[in-house]
Amino acid sequence: MYKIKVNTSYEFDVNKEAVDQLDAVETSTNQYHILHNNASIKAKILDTNIDKKQYRIKVNNNTYEVAISDTLDQQITEMGFAIGASKKVNNIKAPMPGLILEISVSEGKEVKEDDPLLILEAMKMENVINSPRDGIIKSIEVKQGDTVEKDSLLIEFE
């Protein structure tokens, strides 16, 4: 399932089957002819940002800003680790139920983006939870050996 956001205003879901059934032919580099409900549509990709999965597309002389999120992107956003939004994250919550194996930080400690904060064991796998941003640890709500549920508060930033 893909989430499509157009001009940061309109958001809708598109499944893989709908994409596969799209009647589109590339007429030249980044230009497409699309048939939809017996209507002819001309589309051109004007600009792409592959890292952010953002595109600027011209459809029948109208230009649209389009952002596409796949299932993984949506899960990352739900966990609070979205690119761009990460600078606003003040709480780290458990992405899944598990056991706290190790805590690598202490209250008041300054951390950098991607520094390891703790290790959460879930389904016999060790998951390192890294800092989504630079900051100072305000509080640690768990201790080594604690069992946590999904969405349990683990760490707060100042």
TrEMBL record:
CDD domains: biotinyl_domain (cd06850). Gene3D superfamilies: 2.40.50.100. Pfam families: Biotin_lipoyl. InterPro entries: Biotin_BS (IPR001882), Biotin_Carboxyl_Carrier/Decarb (IPR050709), Biotin_lipoyl (IPR000089), Single_hybrid_motif (IPR011053). Keywords: Biotin. Residues 80-158 form the Lipoyl-binding domain. This is Acetyl-CoA carboxylase biotin carboxyl carrier protein subunit. It comes from Winogradskyella vincentii.
